[in-house]
Amino acid sequence: MASSTTPKKTAKNLSSERFVALTNKDVERFVEAEANKNTQRKMHSDVVLTKLILPNENETRQLQDIAPPELDACLSRFLLPARKKSGDEYELTTLGEIIASVERYLNI
Predict the structure, then answer these.
(1) 98 near 49, Cβ under 8 Å?
(2) Any idea where the domains of the chain sit in the sequence?
């Protein structure tokens, strides 16, 4: 049996124990941090994929050492016939995202 000195647990007390008070700014910072992590992860994945095709193009330079017009031509030759691991074609938006990731990586 509970002691008479033990405070009674109310829904309000339980709620304040389980949920900390957050401001809108706290939420914005959290969302931004998560978005940045995902963006960085996606960019890294796309850049790694792009680097895999360079040897197929007989290209030995690093991405950052290839002039943008040359890189565009190289990417075009890669992206048009590129397929997912499953053999399916990439969607056009995905191909655009890969190019955008490489551009962000190179600060173009």
Answers:
(1) yes
(2) 27-106
